TrEMBL record:
Subcellular location: Cell membrane
Annotated spans, Disordered: 1-24
Any one Gene Ontology cellular component term annotated for this protein: plasma membrane
Family (UniProt): Belongs to the ABC transporter superfamily.
Listed GO MF terms: ATP binding; ATP hydrolysis activity
A GO BP annotation: peptide transport
Record's bilayer topology term: Peripheral membrane protein
High-level lineage: Bacteria, Bacillati, Actinomycetota, Actinomycetes, Micrococcales
PROSITE patterns: ABC_TRANSPORTER_1, ABC_TRANSPORTER_2
Name of the protein this chain belongs to: ABC transporter ATP-binding protein
Pfam families assigned: ABC_tran, oligo_HPY
């Protein structure tokens, strides 16, 4: 594995339009998952993920939808090799395709390599992330730790500068570096977590219900931030939530999961206007705001083109 350092991201320009992004997923994948299966082998065996195959394109936002318990988190944690017993990956593979052209088989990575790989290439933000900040350590020290561990050659001055820059990138004043987590609102703490996930310039972000615990206004602000950052930095996102209306707004493509399987995968607008699978239709119908006479679904025209929230 090579170290990307602070490599410029100009080569990772996010494609402009939805169709361009869908094509990009096929021609320039950043992650390919083939026939991936996970079981929880407890007293009762649960087949949580069944033969899932999907491709994440460079710079695309792929939404993963489905009701509670369908296996979304298990798939995300499985890809990143974060599952703990009794979970067992029973089949399939996941490959990371780097910007530089090399391919990493995630099943082949050992402990140390895996730790290095995680923050560096695939970063993860999950629902309770903001509560995983250490309460007795300043934001600055927690952010700097990432660089001390993964970029040991970086000077102290550069580390500090970079931490401040990262905070500003997610809309938090750099003066907050001196704060302790309890001095920040939930929304700010979640922004800090997103800044930390971006620290090493990962090519993939896996976001598992990252805004669910936040109120709607803060949630929308953060989503706007994520789509803006994706456009600027070119990372790809797997965005997991049971909130289908939200996914329809931010995703390029959406995969619908049911009982461990992906039953439909397609362009977000296409999936909304012309759902193919019966279950997708049911899922859409379960959100009255999407199916009412006027509906809340506002994604259209130029808005859909640039992937920004209105
Ligand atoms: N530690 C565990 N032991 C046994 N079964 C588990 C365990 N964790 C999850 N499961 C089961 O695996 C299945 C998939 O769970 P998972 O959490 O991946 O679904 P999800 O779609 O992410 O749900 P949610 O939206 O509620 O987080 C469920 O049937 C769940 O009960």
């Amino acid at each position: 594995m090579t170290d990307l350092g602070d490599r410029p991201v100009s080569d990772a320009r996010a494609p402009e339009s939805l169709s361009e992004r869908a094509a990009e997923a096929r021609t320039h994948p950043v992650l390919t998952i083939d026939d991936f299966s996970v079981e929880y082998k407890g007293d009762r065996v649960v087949k949580a993920v069944r033969n899932v195959s999907l491709t994440l394109g460079r710079g695309e936002i792929l939404g993963l939808a489905g009701e509670s318990g369908c296996g979304k988190s298990t798939l995300a944690y499985g890809i990143n090799r974060l599952l703990k017993p009794p979970a067992v990956i029973t089949g399939g593979s996941a490959h990371f395709h780097s910007r530089e052209g090399y391919v990493i088989d995630l099943n082949e990575l050992g402990g140390e390599e895996l730790r290095a790989f995680r923050w560096d290439k695939i970063a993860m933000v999950f629902q309770g992330a903001m509560n995983s900040l250490n309460p007795v350590i300043t934001i600055q020290r927690q952010m700097e730790d990432i660089f001390s561990t993964h970029r040991p050659d970086m000077s102290r001055k550069d580390r500090r500068m970079r931490c401040g820059d990262l905070l500003e990138r997610v809309g938090v004043d750099r003066a907050r570096l001196r704060s302790f987590p309890h001095e920040l609102s939930g929304g700010m703490r979640q922004r800090v977590m997103i800044a930390m996930a971006m620290a090493l310039d990962p090519q993939v972000m896996i976001m598992d219900e990252p805004t669910t615990a936040l109120d709607v206004v803060v949630q929308r602000e953060i989503l706007r931030e994520i789509t803006r950052l994706r456009a600027a930095l070119g990372f790809a996102v797997i965005f997991i939530t049971h909130d289908l209306p939200l996914l329809l707004e931010i995703s390029d493509r959406i995969a619908v999961m049911r009982e461990g399987e992906i039953v439909e995968l397609g362009d977000a607008v296409e999936l909304y206007t012309n759902p193919r699978h019966e279950y997708t239709r049911k899922l859409l119908a379960s959100f009255p705001s999407l199916t009412g006479e006027r509906g809340d679904f506002i994604r259209s025209g130029s808005h859909a083109q640039n992937g920004e929230l209105v």
